[in-house]
Amino acid sequence: MRTVDEQGYHFEEWLTPQQIAKDVSQVADRISNDYHDKEPLFVVILNGAFVFAADLMRALKGVRCEVTFIRVSSYWGMSSTGQLEFIVPLQQVVENRDVIIVEDVVDSGLTIHQLKAHMRAQGANSVKVATMLFKPNKLEYDDAKPDYIGHEITDEFVIGYGLDFDGFVRNLDAIYKVKQS
Fold it and tell me: Which residue of 61, 107, 110, 177 has the fewest CB atoms within a 10 Å radius of its CB?
């Protein structure tokens, strides 16, 4: 089992690159099936979801789609601040579009809850969510439950595959959980 030390914490590999690829493929297959006759707009949440989004886009089959990016923040270190900050707002018109928000991890659902409300107010036909990781025990907003989930996780802090620790370790090819003593 591979390990990583970061900022005084010890992390153990949880999802291998092979497991991640399988999860991404399953999500892509479901989206491909649901959107084979539509042209969805994928709204990728930077910075964390960029790795998942790149793999997901390449795994889609027969889906003509458009991709755009936004950047919001609600975390510092290993904790949520509870405040959603829009750093790079949505520039794309979503009116009359089927939107799929791509996120790295959904826990409380604050980000997704606010983004879905924003996109509905802008006239989106539908707003769905694809996430690599979902923490169902942390969900506080029912409307933020993801439609497409790569993997469920309990409340551990994770890094790698786009997930960071204060901006670092996004480039790890696996997902690591903080080791419990």
Answer: 61
In a domain, 134, yes or no: yes
* CA-closest candidate to residue 163, choices 148, 178, 147: 178
Beta strands in the chain, from DSSP E residues, in sequence order? 3-6, 9-15, 41-46, 66-76, 79-88, 98-106, 126-134, 148-152, 158-159, 175-178
Active-site residue (options: 104, 107, 166, 173): 107
Whichever domain contains 59, its CATH number is 3.40.50.2020
- Whether 107 sits among the annotated catalytic residues: the reply is yes
159 inside domain: no
Q: How many domains does the chain have?
A: 1
